[in-house]
Amino acid sequence: MHVQLKDVEAGGGFQVLPSGEYAAKLIKHEEYTAQSGNPCVKCTFEVVNSKFAGQYLFDNFTLVANSLWKLKQFALAVNFPATDAEEGFDTDELFYHAENEVILLTVSKSLNKNPKTGKEQERNNVDGYKSMETAPTDDPFGDDVPL
Asked: What is the pLDDT of residue 141?
């Protein structure tokens, strides 16, 4: 395969977004085990609104008792029917139900040390989830600000 890289910048492919709320959809999820031994789900979301449409946001759900509040918030945002099922549910059911469902992600920025380079770098954090039913019905600022 032949490629030409003359006009390609050698930077990272991800833009850090301003803090705010973004309409986004889950496009990928993957179960894994953290170094701590805890079960986790890694998620990739694609922003679908504003000038940041097409950008990606990432979040991890750690499936332990003191972290399940975030998973429940996500399940409620995507209107997952088994959210309060007494017998529980398989997380695959939740994430397959949620794929391509547009929801609101509350996003912030933070500085974190890059484990490969040791340098501080800015990154986005997904702090919460809401259903689109809670979104404002009109955007007086246009496309220049997050939803």
From this structure: 42
